[in-house]
């Protein structure tokens, strides 16, 4: 299995390390040629505006959109979740998205005073996927919030009464950074979908 990690900006190296530790070959994606032969994709956290502009400059928007049309496992974390969402609130007008998951996300929704926080999440879906249950320690960094979830989108976890991890088909979105802790269950959950 070969998974591409979009490596234009942000927290891509830690995702690659988690996947490699699970025996997955990873490819850092910077050009359209890097997309050849991928079985899955990770859009990491970072700054969604910067990633969107860098992807356009690299000619990656169209080829990425085509790859996302195939039924591959896709993980979007934080800024990556924004890029995959149908609707982005408080985004920049020139910010582009793939719109693959029917959710509305609000950028930087948790406000300045709590730019970053950590919380233990209950993720009931892990048990159904054969993963250990028990809390998942989640790191939120200038995180977006999921304010609307469309039909067919499964809520995997919530914080403060709002979804912070969702799944739709083989795509998993988290508004936090699952690659920053030693707990690899979201990556394993993705591979099992
Ligand atoms: N605030 C960032 C954005 O709007 C996301 C932060 C992150 O990915 N950690 O793109």
Class from secondary-structure proportions: alpha/beta
Q: How would a textbook summarize the main sheet? A: 7 strands, mixed
How many distinct domains? 1
Residue share in helices?
Answer: 10-25%
The CATH superfamily title: Class I glutamine amidotransferase (GATase) domain
Helix count equals 6
Task: Give an overview in words.
The protein has one domain: Class I glutamine amidotransferase (GATase) domain (Rossmann fold), CATH 3.40.50.880. 24% of the residues lie in helices and 33% in strands. The chain has 6 helices and 12 strands. A 7-stranded mixed β-sheet has the order 2-1-3-4-12-11-10. The longest helix is centred in the N-terminal third of the chain and has 10 residues. It is globular, with a radius of gyration of 15 Å. Bound molecules: glutamine. The site of glutamine has 11 residues, from α4.
